[in-house]
Amino acid sequence: MLDTLLTLIAIFYLGFQIGGFYTSFKLRHLIFRESAAKGIDVSKFVEPEEKTHLRLVIEHHQNCLYLFDAIHNVFICQGKTIEELAILAKRYKNITHALVLDSKTNNILTFKDGCVE
Questions:
Q1: pLDDT tens-digit profile of 13-46?
Q2: Are residues 72 and 44 in the same domain?
Q3: Alpha-carbon span 98 to 87, nearest angstrom
Q4: pLDDT digits 0-9 by tens, 42-62
C-alpha cells in the first residue's frame, strides 16, 4: 500500500515538473513570436551572460614572462612585457577580461581587451 502511494506521489510530482517546463517553453515561444510579429526587439530585455574574470598568474624566468591560468595551471602564452602578454592572451586564447597576479611583485593587474589596467 505504501509503495503504491509513494509511486503515485512520484508520478504526480514528475508530471507537475514536466508540465511546468512545457508551459514555460510555450510561453517563451509565444512571447518571442508575438513580439517579432509586432516589430518589438526583445533581445535587449534578455539578460546578457555574466562575464567571468579568469584568474591568471605571471611567472618570471630570466628574460621571459609566462602567463598561466591560476586555477587549472594551464600555460597560456609567453612574452617579454606584461603588455605583450595581454595582447597575446587576447589574440590566441580570446581572453578579454582577466585578473592577473604578478608573482614577482605580488601586484594584481587586470587585462581588458588586450590592455593592462
A1: 999 999 999 999 898 888 888 888 888 877 766 6
A2: no
A3: 12
A4: 776 666 555 567 899 999 999
For 70, the domain range is 54-116
**Helix H or strand E encompassing 55:** strand 54-61
Q: Are residues 92 and 42 in the same domain?
A: no
Grid cell at residue 111: 587585462
Domain identity same for 24 and 40: yes
- Decide: 77 and 34 in contact? Cβ < 8 Å: no
**Cβ-contact 117, 109 below 8 angstroms:** yes
CA-CA distance, 109 to 57, in Å (whole number)? 10
Same domain for 58 and 41, yes or no, is: no
C-alpha cell belonging to residue 75? 600555460
Total count of residues recorded for the chain? 117
